[in-house]
User: Which sequence fits this backbone?
């Protein structure tokens, strides 16, 4: 008998004994399954301490939104009992109508018997749950609408939810696994620019279309013709906020707080610096790096004021919004505040309160800025409240994919060809969706302002209000 066979027998003997003595039949079943599983594209994909990282409907990834009905739904889905899964997910939706994971699983179950087209959406469930849910709401709304219209050329659409925690190494591993799964024809994601940069080479090498709806960093290394995005780049954001600062707010001496570990934050600082000088202003260098061990909000503001600043740009990363709000509070309304699109989040209103009142932010979308577009009204009906730009731009990413597949060539290469074609366009939450030859969105950013309101739509006493409408 070979040493390999002897080792296997010893392991099995040990497990059987453990199962008998400890009543742990589950241990025996799960471990044997892991030892001998040969399925390369199983849903476990990249494991994590919290469990599975991907699911079509057989696992709850957003544990915070668990209900007994949702749990029963995923158990039925895992068994292939889609009728029961549909009924349970519908019941869970009655309890938690703003849960996007349940709506996606419901539509996945309904599409299971309709020769489904399958794509993935990668979100940071463990990195920033609110952001993950915002992205999922836009994708879920688009999926729900296309199913109500009869699907894509009569076929259903299934969306696999994948969690990368906004971690670059995990994002790379996730991308590698999605590329291997030939049933996945497109990917919406990733959220942070750091995660996107790590994943892009894998999608490009594997010939799998990736459309990011939230990664705004101007330059993406190793980018190729399979990489797109529906969010305007930071260059557009920088130009927009610079022109407003100089021409409208009449603030010409600007200091910047940023996160040196976040690609989008560093990119905004660089692009904004170039834009300010081009528009006739200047940047005042201060020590205000959210990632620095020595970061001190009070010192940063005092330093900016002592150097003659009349404005302060908060170029926060998603992970460090709280530190940007510390700066806003330390500012005490002394310097005119500008903000990146990252700060267009409920957290800014809830935790910032009066400290952020009057702050002007640059953003790709606001529900009141695109007059006549049905998306915000439909979103409010579906979720019971307003959604933000991450939902809108993720909805747009799915609309681009759906339009690409409707051309008739439902394949990875076919989708890339359609999206890259000169005449391609689709309609979304932000109007017409068109891509530049680079794969970037052909569009501009808008400006929004934080205002005190009673009552407020957000319920915080403050709301985001567009300065300009399109």
Assistant:
């Amino acid at each position: 008998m070979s040493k390999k066979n002897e080792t296997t027998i010893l392991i099995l003997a040990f497990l059987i004994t453990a199962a008998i003595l400890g009543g742990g039949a589950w241990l025996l079943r799960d471990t044997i399954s892991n030892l001998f599983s040969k399925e390369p594209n199983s849903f476990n994909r990249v494991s994590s301490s919290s469990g599975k990282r991907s699911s079509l409907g057989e696992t709850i990834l957003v544990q915070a939104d668990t209900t007994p009905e949702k749990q029963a739904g995923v158990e039925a889905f895992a068994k292939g009992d889609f009728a029961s899964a549909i009924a349970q997910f519908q019941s869970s939706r009655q309890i938690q109508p703003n849960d996007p994971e349940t709506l996606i699983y419901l539509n996945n179950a309904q599409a299971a018997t309709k020769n489904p087209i399958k794509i993935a959406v990668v979100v940071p469930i463990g990195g920033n749950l609110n952001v993950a849910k915002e992205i999922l709401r836009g994708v879920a709304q688009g999926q729900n609408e296309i199913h109500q219209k009869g699907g894509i050329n009569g076929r259903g659409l299934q969306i696999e939810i994948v969690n990368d925690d906004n971690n670059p190494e995990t994002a790379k591993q996730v991308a590698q696994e999605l590329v291997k799964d030939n049933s996945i024809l497109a990917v919406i994601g990733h959220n942070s620019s750091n995660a996107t940069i790590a994943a892009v080479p894998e999608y490009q090498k594997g010939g799998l279309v990736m459309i990011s709806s939230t990664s705004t960093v101007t330059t993406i290394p190793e980018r190729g013709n399979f990489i797109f995005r529906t969010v305007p780049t930071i260059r557009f954001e920088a130009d927009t906020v610079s022109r407003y600062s100089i021409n409208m707010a009449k603030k010409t001496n600007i200091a910047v707080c940023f996160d040196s570990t976040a690609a989008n934050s560093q990119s905004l600082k660089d692009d904004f610096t170039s834009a300010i000088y081009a528009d006739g202003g200047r940047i005042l260098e201060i020590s205000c790096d959210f990632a620095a061990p020595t970061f001190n909000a009070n010192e940063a503001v005092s330093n900016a004021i002592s150097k003659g600043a009349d404005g302060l740009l908060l170029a926060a990363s998603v992970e460090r919004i709280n530190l940007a709000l510390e700066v806003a509070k330390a500012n005490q309304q002394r310097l005119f505040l500008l903000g990146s699109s990252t700060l267009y989040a409920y957290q800014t209103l809830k935790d910032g309160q009066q400290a952020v009142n009057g702050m002007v932010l640059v953003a790709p979308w606001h529900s009141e800025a695109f007059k006549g577009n049905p998306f915000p009204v439909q979103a409010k009906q579906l979720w019971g409240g307003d959604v933000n730009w991450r939902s809108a731009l993720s909805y747009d990413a799915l609309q681009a994919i759906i339009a690409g597949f409707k051309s008739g060539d439902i394949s990875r290469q076919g989708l890339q060809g359609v999206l890259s074609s000169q005449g391609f366009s689709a309609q979304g939450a932000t109007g017409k969706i068109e891509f530049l030859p680079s794969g970037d969105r052909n569009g501009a950013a808008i400006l929004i302002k934080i205002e005190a309101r009673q009552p407020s739509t957000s319920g915080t006493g403050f709301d985001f209000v567009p300065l300009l409408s399109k």
